[in-house]
Amino acid sequence: MARRLQRLAHGVYERVLEREVDGAPDHVAVIQDGNRRYAQQRGDDTASGHREGARTTEEILDWCAELGVRELTLYAFSTENFDRPPAEREELFDLIERKLYEFADEPSVHEEEVRIRAIGQLEQLPERVREAVDYAERRTEGYEAQRLNVALAYGGRAELLDAARKVAAAVEADDLTSEDVDVDTVEEHLAERPPRDVDLIIRTGGDERTSNFLPWHANGNEAAVFFCAPYWPEFSRVDFLRAIRTYQSRQQSWQRTRAERALALVGAVGADGGLVRRLRENVGDLPELEIEPIDRVDEELPEPAAD
């Protein structure tokens, strides 16, 4: 009976969250942490934890399709993971290889037109994994409705360092001048960069850090971050909805703050009534400001000097 009540309450809470979610972020990035701890907690070997985590990965792809998330990036294997024991590394490579082939042949991937690609220092991966990456990318290269980026042998610092070296080499070869280097230049030299900035980072497993994950695309975009306690194999649709609600709350707060600043600015320098009215419609309920009409401000400006 207690379990039935718990399931009922969970279902009710999920429906409440669904009603609160109004639009999803374009790009969600996930740090899938806790597979090993999940297995240890259950007295199983680490490979079983990674297998259970792979099932959650399949589910989050469905949740993204349902909620309208257009791009998902999964932190599947970091550069630091190369320091793990050889047997565990091989288990991970086996799983990644198998799942890439499975995803590439999954009917729903083709029905939803999901493009799969890998990002990271792929040359460090075993040949068999690189072949699986190539297969998945070739099978889905014509799709654009959704994107699934799999971060393999990935490290954010290494990505930025590689881009800096490429830019420096271009300057040295006189293909660029130092004055030409700007944000767009760096982005052009980021290897296999996700085409959209990251809107939301999710990390499971209880740790509250982003672990060198997509620093240019997340930090530069001031992405929202959602940390949660469940290990990756335990991550549920309710957790995913809570993460999106966190993103939405932050976006609404930012929008309101920007609009408040704009209102304060027009209150200081003057504006026509139509502009102020439109700003108030975007912001909502705000204290009244003393708005100086634009024509009065103009009258106070000095006359231009005669030639």
Tell me what you see in this structure:
- Helix 2 (35-41) packs across helix 3 (46-67).
- This protein has helices at 2-20, 35-41, 46-67, 86-105, 107-111, 127-140, 156-172, 183-189, 215-219, 237-269, 273-283, 294-300; strands at residues 27-31, 71-78, 114-119, 146-154, 200-203, 224-227.
- By secondary structure, the chain is an alpha/beta fold.
- It contains twelve helices and six strands.
- The protein folds into two domains: 22-235, Undecaprenyl pyrophosphate synthetase; 257-300, no CATH class.
- A six-stranded parallel β-sheet has the order 3-4-2-1-5-6, sandwiched between helices.
- The chain is globular, with a radius of gyration of 25 Å.
Structural class: alpha/beta
Principal-axis shape equals globular
Q: Are there runs of 5+ residues with pLDDT below 50, and where? A: 286-304
What strand order characterises the main sheet? 3-4-2-1-5-6
Q: Indicate how many domains the architecture comprises.
A: 2
CATH architecture of the largest domain: 3-Layer(aba) Sandwich
Chart the SSEs and their pairings.
Blueprint: H1 2-20, E1 27-31, H2 35-41, H3 46-67, E2 71-78, H4 86-105, H5 107-111, E3 114-119, H6 127-140, E4 146-154, H7 156-172, H8 183-189, E5 200-203, H9 215-219, E6 224-227, H10 237-269, H11 273-283, H12 294-300
Parallel strand pairs: 1-2, 1-5, 2-4, 3-4, 5-6
Helix pairs in contact: 1-10, 2-3, 3-4, 4-6, 7-8, 10-11
Q: Which terms would index this structure?
A:
single chain; 307 residues; alpha/beta; Undecaprenyl pyrophosphate synthetase; 2 domains; 6-stranded parallel sheet; 54% helix
